[in-house]
Design a protein that fits this description.
Blueprint (H helix, E strand, L loop, with lengths): L7 H35 L2 E12 L7 E4 L4 E9 H10 L3 E3 L3 H4 L2 E6 L1 E3 L6 E5 L2 E15 L1 E3 L2 H4 L4 E8 L3 E7 H4 L4 E5 L11 E10 L9 E3 L2 E10 L2 E10 L6 E7 L6 E6 L1 H6 L2 E7 L7 E6 L6 E4 L3 E10 L1
Parallel strand pairs: 1-4, 9-12, 16-19
Antiparallel strand pairs: 1-3, 2-8, 3-7, 4-6, 5-8, 8-11, 10-15, 11-14, 12-13, 13-15, 16-18, 17-22, 18-21, 20-22
Length: 323
Amino acid sequence: MKWNFDNPMLTKILSVIIAIFLFMFVSYEGKSHTDNVMSGSSSHSVTEVLTNIPVEVDIDNEKYFATGIPNAVSIRLDGPQSVITQTVVTQNFTVKTPDLTELGVGTHKIELFAEGFSEELNYNLSPAVATIRVEEKLSQQYDVDVNFDRDEYVARGYDVEGIDLSEKQVTISGAESTLSNIHEVKAIIQPNQTNITSSFNVEARVVVLNKAGEPLNVNVSPSTVDASVNITSRKKEVAINLEQTGKIDPRFDYNISLATNELPTLEVSGDYDKIAAMEEIAVDVDLSGITESTTREVPIVMPDGVDEMSRNKVNVKINVQRK
């Protein structure tokens, strides 16, 4: 068949066919290049460091107690980026000790290891080695003391009348050497508010401390107790007792009383025991040099044991009559 290339229609058809072929060729090359890049990216080796990974302790908790084991470790991972990314997201691995029950009582140097990593990953633990001590587990009961900072939480003018705990004793389990260092067992009461003026209930955490005030590595049951804190007012209404003082002119008779607008009592707060025993406050009225009836403003001296008074002065009516 003879092609007539001078035919315009034929030329256009050939141009379209050539353009389609070139487009398909370029698209295939681009896809091939992209696939190669993606394949190279997924197989590219990277490093990732994971921190604060808890250590799972393999031990018979009913019989033994181990000390010296790190609470957490760091892990360095090396491998394909896609595998590391999946590992970080799923966290489907554990860091463990060897079977400490098989090691038995004594001091041992152990190597920590990890389970659950892909075979495509290499890992390094830090720390990877620990010197531990395995001891027989003991359990004993201890009385619980109360730790509550009244000055930090209770409003002025109020006091703590008593604190009741749901459990007065707790069971503490741990190594014999650790239990021998127990100095204090306290229920720490920390309400979530200050300036408290009424009784309240709160959950208190039980802590076990040595002589230096440092927490000990033991198990406490129960680890929290319910505390009922009874708050009472240290405020009290007491009577005002006017007393004559000073050098009195013998030519006159004197009578003193509170002014008409003055209340006969005032409110005081302070030391709980002293306030409870207080019934009145003496107010000295100095009559020196007074020869005629008058009204005077007299200061109220704060008695021992009183921190605050509702007022610190009072108006006194002085009635003077010649004999």
